[in-house]
């Protein structure tokens, strides 16, 4: 017999639910004494271990022998306060997650019905989950296939390596003098590796268009007498164009890397460096493209309303003037086309804030941001407008707010149709159209080339093109890919030298029961080693200590990204040949800052090498909905990362929030003393849950 406690759905409820193997005749009794005021419908959750072969079955869920009692007046008052709405039949949801390669079935039951006009509460029931074999051949990825995703060794294992960085997407040049500064004298042997600083995908995948890169891949370059020319990603990622039925147009959303302001690459030397090769020619298309959807973005991250969350806001406070003009350049616009303007504002005031705006002196519809509530540090709201008075050259957006109210811009984005025309030295473009198309670029000359920007396993290539006058014509199989038109004879800026990289080879790491990640400065390494050695001796654990900067080098192209921690853990997880070899524990041995990039006044001057990164929610203005979640590092099964609050973690994860050796020693001393059972007492049976 099982006793169930009534749970109120909250951010942590799914993490606190126990797992049990239920039989068909097991009864669950619900304890309604735990009902309390919350904001959502109460539910009862039961979880079932479905084993490692769970994918071979479908599951039939039955709730048998339900027992009901009338809801008391007190309970009904609470339920009405949270807007609970009982239905005529018992409702439940069934979903399957994965934890340590086992399928975990989860049943969430909403224990209220309405019968003959009366509210009735479920008090007990029997849960029956029956597996049924799937028909047909079931695909199951073998351990060997999974292990083959990863290189046996990192390219950083040997040789001389220097890390470089850029602040934005573009074309860059490695000149002989810069290479000499790095210690490379033979330009004919210089190689470039990496993939830049766009934030790692939440769903880790090693196939398809958005596949992640394992280790570092070589970047083909244009080799000239005056150096190497190459394309570099920045820290801004635009999503693939997708049609929105609500907006009735194609949209693409921005994602700025919340962990780094720079994009990193690596320079080394060796035989046969890769040059940019030309793709095979394809036939002409009957559909021609001479324009593309352009995105102009204004986003200056400098201020945070609250010391939490990944989003920052503009430094300008409208309380100091309540009006500001923003200039939006629209080079080579296609006349007669509607543009789309989006901007997000934030405000913090005890009364509503009115946001009014004008584009090129034409008023736009105003909107209101409500007064902040008890847990709000600010409230955000978007304005979306169609624009028909776009000018050539520069456009002006004026934003006004209620006088005296604290308000700040988040970002401005203008989408417009732009001619495929090269007026500068390079032009990056893509399109939402699919299938083979012929594209025409004006403003070209004999030095103009079209490069298709690379992705994992598919390096940058030159597209065959023909020049007639100043018009370059070329055919592309997939216009949704990113392309760059390049003046191959122009001079380009050089990247910054970040420093020499010692040889490392985390890809050679095998089984580990426990991984301890420490900041790159090494200040905490001695104490981390003390703790690791004690676990090795006392618990017979296989413990690895890795530095954060080494993880970035092999798993995020040298760019700080919390995804590097997770991808390393997934490599160990995927390589495990049995359950005993799965990693069990992850200790983040170092504190983090809510401003991972250290762009705000409160965090400037800090040394990023003294900290580890933290994963934060999108919400950055509310005390309830903005928080840090280290649990995301434990989502290691294929396909996980889409819904971090319902997926199952595969590790025990903890953090020592320390930045110096003294505090680290204190926590290690306490941990060892606890494991030695030096201070005995009932306090060891008390668990504190912080939420």
Please outline the helices and strands:
Elements: E1 2-5, E2 7-8, H1 13-16, E3 27-31, E4 42-51, E5 57-70, H2 73-81, E6 91-99, E7 102-110, E8 112-115, E9 118-133, H3 143-147, E10 161-166, E11 170-174, H4 176-182, E12 190-193, E13 222-224, E14 227-232, E15 236-238, E16 242-244, E17 249-251, E18 254-256, E19 263-269, E20 277-278, E21 288-289, E22 291-298, E23 323-330, E24 339-348, E25 353-359, E26 362-369, E27 379-387, E28 393-401, E29 406-419, E30 426-429, E31 437-442, E32 448-452, E33 461-463, E34 465-468, E35 471-476, E36 483-487, E37 496-501, E38 514-518, H5 525-539, E39 543-547, H6 548-555, H7 562-575, E40 585-589, E41 652-656, H8 661-676
Parallel strand pairs: 1-3, 20-33, 21-31, 38-39, 38-40, 40-41
Antiparallel strand pairs: 2-4, 3-9, 4-7, 5-9, 6-7, 8-9, 10-19, 10-37, 11-14, 12-19, 13-14, 15-18, 16-17, 22-29, 23-28, 24-27, 24-29, 25-26, 25-28, 30-36, 31-35, 32-33, 32-36, 34-35
Helix pairs in contact: 5-8, 6-7
Task: Please characterize this protein's 3D structure.
- By secondary structure, the chain is mostly beta strands.
- The protein contains 8 helices and 41 strands.
- Strands 1, 3, 5, 8 and 9 form a 5-stranded mixed beta sheet that branches.
- A hairpin with a 4-residue loop joins strand 16 and strand 17.
- Helix 5 packs parallel to helix 8 and helix 6 (548-555) crosses helix 7 (562-575).
- The radius of gyration is 29 Å and the shape is globular.
- The two termini are 30 Å apart.
- Residues 1-24 have low confidence and may be disordered.
């Amino acid at each position: 017999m099982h006793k169930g406690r009534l749970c109120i759905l909250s951010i942590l409820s799914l993490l606190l639910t126990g797992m049990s193997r239920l039989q068909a005749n097991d009864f669950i009794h619900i304890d309604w004494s735990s009902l309390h005021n919350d904001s959502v419908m109460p539910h009862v959750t039961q979880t079932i271990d479905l084993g490692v072969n769970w994918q071979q079955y479908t599951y039939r869920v039955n709730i048998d022998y339900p027992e009901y009692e009338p809801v008391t007046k007190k309970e009904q008052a609470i339920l009405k306060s949270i807007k609970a709405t009982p239905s005529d039949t018992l409702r439940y949801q069934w979903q399957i997650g994965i934890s340590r390669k086992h399928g975990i079935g989860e049943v969430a039951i909403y224990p209220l019905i309405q019968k003959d006009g009366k509210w009735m509460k479920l008090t007990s029931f029997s849960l029956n989950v029956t597996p049924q074999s799937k028909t047909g051949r079931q695909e199951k990825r073998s351990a060997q296939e999974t292990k083959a995703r990863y290189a046996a060794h990192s390219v950083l294992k040997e040789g001389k390596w220097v890390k470089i960085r850029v602040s934005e997407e573009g074309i860059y040049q490695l000149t002989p003098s810069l290479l000499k500064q790095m210690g490379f004298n033979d330009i004919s042997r210089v190689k470039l590796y990496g993939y830049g600083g766009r934030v790692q995908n939440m769903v880790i995948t090693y196939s398809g268009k958005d596949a992640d890169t394992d280790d570092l891949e070589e970047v083909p370059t244009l080799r000239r007498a005056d150096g190497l020319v190459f394309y570099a990603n920045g820290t801004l990622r635009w999503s693939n164009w997708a049609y929105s039925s609500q907006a009735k147009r194609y949209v693409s959303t921005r994602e700025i890397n919340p962990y780094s302001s720079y994009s990193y690459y690596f320079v080394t030397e060796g035989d046969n460096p890769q040059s940019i090769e030309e793709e095979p020619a394809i036939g002409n298309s009957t559909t021609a493209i001479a324009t593309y959807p352009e995105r102009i973005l204004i986003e200056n991250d400098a201020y945070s309303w609250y010391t939490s969350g990944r989003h920052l806001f503009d430094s300008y406070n409208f309380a100091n003037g309540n009006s500001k003009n923003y200039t939006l350049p629209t080079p080579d616009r296609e006349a007669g086309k509607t543009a789309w303007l989006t901007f997000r504002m934030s405000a913090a005031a005890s009364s509503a804030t009115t946001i009014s705006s004008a584009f090129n002196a034409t008023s736009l519809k105003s909107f209101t941001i409500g007064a902040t509530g008890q847990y709000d540090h600010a409230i955000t709201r978007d304005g979306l407008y169609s624009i028909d008075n776009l000018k050539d050259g520069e456009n002006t957006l004026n934003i006004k707010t209620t006088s005296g109210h604290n308000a700040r811009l988040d970002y401005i984005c203008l989408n417009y149709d732009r001619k495929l025309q090269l007026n500068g030295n390079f032009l990056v473009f893509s399109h939402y159209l699919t299938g083979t198309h012929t594209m025409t670029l004006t403003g070209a000359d004999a030095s103009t080339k079209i490069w298709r920007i690379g992705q994992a396993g598919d390096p940058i290539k030159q597209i065959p093109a023909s020049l007639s006058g100043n018009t370059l014509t070329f055919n592309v199989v997939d216009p949704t890919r990113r392309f760059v038109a390049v003046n191959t004879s122009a001079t380009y800026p050089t990247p910054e030298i970040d420093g020499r990289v010692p040889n490392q080879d985390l890809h050679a790491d095998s089984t580990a029961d426990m991984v301890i990640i420490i900041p790159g400065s090494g200040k905490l390494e001695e104490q981390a080693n003390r703790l690791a050695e004690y676990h090795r001796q006392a618990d017979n654990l296989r413990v690895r200590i890795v530095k954060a900067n080494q993880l970035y080098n092999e798993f995020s192209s040298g760019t700080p990204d919390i995804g590097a921690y997770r991808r390393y853990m997934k490599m160990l997880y995927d390589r495990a040949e049995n359950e005993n070899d799965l990693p069990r524990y992850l200790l983040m041995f170092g504190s983090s800052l809510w401003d991972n990039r250290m762009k705000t006044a409160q965090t400037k001057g800090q040394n990023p090498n003294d900290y580890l990164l933290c994963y934060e929610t999108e919400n950055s203005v509310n005390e309830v909905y903005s928080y840090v979640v280290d649990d995301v590092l434990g989502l290691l099964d294929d396909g996980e990362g889409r819904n971090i609050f319902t997926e199952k973690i595969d590790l025990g994860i903890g953090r020592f929030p320390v930045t110096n050796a003294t505090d680290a020693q204190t926590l290690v001393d306490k941990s060892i003393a606890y494991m030695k059972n030096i201070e005995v007492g009932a306090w060891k049976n008390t668990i504190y849950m912080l939420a």
